[in-house]
Amino acid sequence: MSVYQDKDLLRRIERNRALLYNAELKNEFIDSGTNSLQTIQLMVQIFSIFTNDETKHHCDLCQFPKEILEPIINGRLGLKGKTIDRSVKVLKDYVTWCKDTKGIETSNAVFEIVPYNIDKYRRQMVGSPKHLKEVLDNPIYGFDPPEKHTIDITYRVFLWMAFAGLKEIDALKVTKNDVDLSRLEIHLDGRTFEIYKECKEDFELACNLESFSVFRSGYEMNMPRAAGDLILRGITNEQVSLQTIRSVVNMALSGHRYLQKICKQEAPRKRNRKPSEQELKIVDMIDNQHMQQSEVARSLNVSRQCVHNAYHRYKRRESREADEQPEVEIKANTYSYTRLYLSGVYYRAYEKERIDKLTPSFDEEVKYDIAKWEEQHGRKYKTSSSRSEQSIINNKCRERLKDYQQWKKAFA
Q1: What are the φ and ψ backbone dihedral angles of 237, each rounded to 5 degrees?
Q2: How far apart are alpha carbons 233 and 244 in whole angstroms?
Q3: Beta-carbon contacts of residue 133 (< 8 Å; ≥ 6 apart)
Q4: What is the pLDDT tens value at each position of the chain, 412 positions in all?
Q5: Strand locations in 19-113 (E)
């Protein structure tokens, strides 16, 4: 990390430290334990999760009862076991420090909570290809069905490739020639990824469609796709950017794309919202002076049809503006590309475990993850001087096995 990045990170950390609830106490704890900028950043991020609840209850998290603390830990401290364990350790250290060093009467709730909530796995991951198809077909996520032949086909295939085991950087590379629809396989860089029967139609359309249907103002148009062989190519560019596709997919998976569509349908039109001076004069003469439309037309030297149109245009606008916007409640689960990728890894491990009756190994997947991380970031994966690369791989495999056991409890 460069000096400038260090300074920028330090400014952000200091700003966030000042926003913590009971900031003086928490900052004293943070400074008493470490000088590492990354560790301080981690602690501040963890404490920030509790700030709104502490403000709401006018109580520091070290004194939270179990009924308040448990939903926060199980709902907001991440999904992976390593992330949860690290966060809970910080909370336990903080509660112990408050009690022993500051003499504060603390709650023991954090020591009583088992920080693994199976419901969170059910909300954030999927258990099978059939489950993922149900997610993509659910209108709350805003993906158009395949038969509409819209550009949403590419977003659906992008998420299917996550479940199949492709990292994002590889999903963008897949061409029509890499897809074998007869054998339901993707062949890329010497690896083979399975195409599940539930998504065969999506892949067929992504490979073969030459144009996408576009719906605008109630009309359907066909827009030709960009030339090329990439199956994720859109209308304008052959090579879609990762940032663009991430933005659309994340908005859809959070339910905001559906909300956007609903609001667009229900919202009044914004064109010509401001009435003209003549329109206001016409409305005043008819409503307040009780003049006939023909009299108004002669008075203003305009046609009667002009008066009629102006008056009713104003009334329609007035009526629309008076209508309240509908309240749309979104109950979307928080899926993501990475969580769907891990869901696919665990699903295949479970299927293999059922056949072989052996504890699955994640060695191959972890090595693939590290190789793709290095390709994406253009540098060697960070290793400790005291630990070999194989030691780090073994540790990641143990962590993944632990998370797999939780996934299996949720879906098996």
Answers
A1: -120, 145
A2: 12
A3: 198, 199
A4: 444 346 777 888 888 888 899 889 999 998 887 777 888 888 999 999 899 899 999 999 999 998 988 888 877 777 777 788 888 889 999 999 999 988 988 888 888 887 666 778 888 899 999 999 999 998 888 888 999 999 999 999 999 999 999 999 999 999 999 999 999 999 998 999 999 999 999 999 999 999 999 887 677 888 999 999 999 998 888 888 888 898 888 888 877 665 555 555 544 444 445 677 777 777 777 777 777 777 777 777 778 788 788 877 777 766 665 554 444 444 456 788 999 999 999 999 999 998 888 888 899 988 998 888 888 878 887 766 667 888 888 888 998 998 898 899 888 7
A5: none
Evaluate whether 115 touches 73 at the Cβ level (below 8 Å).
yes
b/e per residue 54-74 (b: at least 16 CB within 10 A): beeeebbbbbbeeebbbebbb
Residues paired with residue 215 on neighbouring β-strands, in sequence order: 220
- Using CA atoms, how far apart are residues 93 and 88, in angstroms rounded to an integer? 9
pTM of the model: 0.71
- Which residue's entry shows tokens 């039109």? 269
What's the Cα-to-Cα distance from 65 to each of 35, 48, 103, 106, rounded to whole Å?
31, 18, 18, 9
CA distance 258 to 244: 18
Are 403 and 203 spatial neighbours (Cβ–Cβ below 8 Å)? no
Residue 238 and residue 227 in contact, taking contact as beta carbons nearer than 8 Å: yes
Contact 316, 275 (CB under 8 A): no
Lookup result for tokens 């199976």: 118
Task: For 330-361, give the DSSP string.
Answer: -------HHHHHHHHHHHHHHHHHHHH-S---
Question: CB within 8 A of 301, min separation 6: which ones?
Answer: none
Distances (CA, A) of 350 to 181, 322, 369, 408: 25, 56, 19, 8
Cα distances from 206 to residues 25, 36, 155, 175, 248, in angstroms, run 56, 48, 10, 10, 17
Locate the domains of the chain by residue range: 3-116, 129-265, 277-322, 338-411
CB count in 10 Å sphere of residue 209: 18
- Residue 360 CB neighbours (<10 A): 20
Long-range contacts of 387-395, Cβ-Cβ distance < 8 Å, separation of 24 or more:
393/363, 393/366, 393/367
Q: What are phi and psi of 170, to 5 degrees?
A: -85, -35
